[in-house]
Structure formats: C-alpha cells, structure tokens
Amino acid sequence: MTEAPIPVFDGHNDVLWRLWSSAGGLDKAVKIFTEGAADGHIDAIKARKGGLAGGLCAIYVPSNDQKRATRNADGHYDTPLAGPLERGPSLDIALQMAHIALEIERAGGWRLCRSGADIDTAMADGVFAAVLHLEGCEPIGADLSALSVLHAAGLRSLGPVWSRNNIFAHGVPFAFPKCPDTGPGLTDLGKALVRECDRLGILVDCAHITEKGFWDIAETSENPLIVSHSNAHALTPVARNLTDRQLDAVRERKGIVGLNYAVSMLREDGAENPDTSIDDMLRHIDYLVERVGIDGVALGSDFDGAMIPAVIGSAAGLPSLVRGLETHGITGPDLEKLCRGNWRRVIGQVIG
Ligand SMILES: [Zn+2]
User: Fold this and answer.
1) pLDDT band per the 50, 70, 90 thresholds, residue 3
2) FRET partner for 200 with CA separation of 20 to 30 A, picked from 115, 220, 245, 267?
C-alpha cells in the first residue's frame, strides 16, 4: 500500500469553467467531476490521488474577445485587455456555474464550505472542501443585490476584476515584461463592493487587479491582504505578478499569496512552455517566503485555468511538488502551513 498523499488546500482553480465549457450539459458536467475524465486538471479521482483536499473554486465568465499573446523575438508580449462584459449574460453564466457546483455537491462530489469549520469537517470526512469564488464581478450590478444572493448561495470569496475592466475596478493585462501599475484601481462602486464583502464575510482577492487597485483594496478592507494566484515579479516580471512593495504589504497585513503554477508566471523567460521544473516553482516559493514569511505563503495552482508544468500534469501530480518542497527543506509545521494551514487561517478569519 502506498502512503496517503499530504493534503493540500489550494487557493485557485477553474474547474467550474472547464466543466461549464464541456459539451453534454449539466449531468455530463457533474459526471466528469465525480467519475473523472482523461483530460483536465481536477476531478474527484485526480484530487484524491494527488491529495488535493479542497480549494477556492472560481466562477469565471470568459471573454470571447481575449487575444492570445503575440510574442516578439525576445519573447516579450503585451496583450490588450479584453473588452467589458454585459451584466445580464454574465449573471446567466455565473448562475449556470453555481448550478454545476450545487449539483456536484448533491452528487457527493464535493462539499460547498461556508465557514472554516465546514472546511475542517469536509477534509476530516475525506470530501473535497470547495469554497465558491467569483473571479471578476461582472455578474454583480451596481446595487450589489446579486452579491447578497450569491453569498446566500454559498459564495465566500471574490476578485473584483479579472484581467479586464468593469464597473468596480481595472484589471491588469497579460504582458511580459511589465509592471502591474498599469492604470486606475477601484472605482467608488468597487470600494462599496469591498466594504460590503467585509460586512458579509467574503474574501477579497487582489489577483488580476492593477497595482493601484491592490492599494485601494488595502485601504478599503480591514481584512488580511489576499492574492490567491500570483508570483514574484522580481523573478518573473509579468504584470500579473507582485512587486516587492506589494509583497511587503501582504506581510504587514498578515495576508497570503498563493503560488500560481502557470508556467508563464514561473519561468524567467515568461514562456508558455510546459517543460518547466519544480525548481522554478521552488525559486518563487523561496522568494515569497523570504519576503512575506512562512505564514503568508500558500498554493494557488490555477488548475484548469493555465498551462502548468508537465512534471505536475494535474491534481494527481501534486505529490511531485510536495516532495520537492520537502527535499528543499520545507517540512513539518512549515509544510503544513504552506500546503493548507495558511489558507485555513485566513479563510477562517474572514468568513468565520
Ligand atoms: Zn486567474
């Protein structure tokens, strides 16, 4: 018998988007998750195999006009932001993804967790602990009524923007090399959204927002600063990664940064190349731990949302990363914090 993998609670995945995009409707989408599929990064089978015990599962409304990165001879690119989305169709899609999430729960594929204690119970029961996240708030209108309803349906985390602009905030483009200070931050409505999240007990995620937006969230929210899936800009200068100043603020505010496995955000050359090593991931981990401290570093895979290192491949390959961390000297309580404890602490603090 092989040893059980070390449990990981992860800060960001797009499995709901992948299931929603798959052909065959609701029943098929639920089945893909509960019974597993050959492709994709996350399903119940791969999660169990790799020790993925839970995570923040994003409702993400895709942009049909998002351009692919065109790289010059040096590998540099600066992709324009996708255009704004309409609220009505965005809300339809968000409800469809939330519906998939609720049906997976009904089928016993995971449990939707509304508190830190829910996460503990699900993990102790060996059931995937899913926390519903909204990546980009286009489904929410200016009166914030949809926020209240989505919260009642289980939503416990959101990022005001994806990499595009909306009524709440400005997103950071996909660009390399580029500084994340690319434009304005939160709008007045965005500040109201952040305050309402604090009141309801919803995490506010700074991933995908401009640097100005990051500082606006820091000023508006009382909670720890959370960046669910971003890396160190000093090592990989994509606009989506965090500058030293931002990392210092995360430390001061006792927040958290989740390591993104997207190869273009890990590699020195920023290339979209799956031949990316565990060492590239460890370089970012070392830097983040040095800058933010071991209490503020966690994992934020971007499973089902990005090209990840082939050596990991899917959630089933998580033990390769965990073994890499151990061989690198991150063991015992430090490993526990990085793999799940830090997320558990911050989530409990914000959502109860
Ligand atoms: Zn993302």
Assistant:
1) confident
2) 245
**Containing structural domain, residue 201:** 8-351
Structure tokens at 79: 């992709």
Q: What is the mean pLDDT of residues 213-231?
A: 98
The distance in angstroms from the start CA to the end CA of the chain is 38
Tell whether 281 is covered by a domain. yes
Q: Strand 175-176 and strand 77-78: pairing? A: antiparallel
How far apart are the CA of 2 and the centre of ligand 1, in A?
A: 34
From the CA of 226, how far away is ligand 1's center (Å)?
13
- Residue 264 C-alpha to ligand 1 middle, in angstroms? 13
Which residues sit opposite 299 in a β-bridge?
259
pTM beyond cutoff 0.70: yes
Total number of domains constituting the chain: 1
| Alpha helices for 22-157 (secondary structure H) | 25-35, 44-50, 87-106, 116-124, 145-152
State the distance from the centre of ligand 1 to the C-alpha of 188, rounded, in angstroms: 23
Q: Tell me, what's the pLDDT at 2?
A: 64
Determine the pLDDT at residue 262. 98
- Residue 230 CA to ligand 1 centre (angstroms): 9
286 within domain boundaries:
yes
The rounded Å distance from CA 16 to ligand 1 centre is 13
Average pLDDT over residues 28-36: 98
What CATH number should be reported for the domain holding residue 196?
3.20.20.140
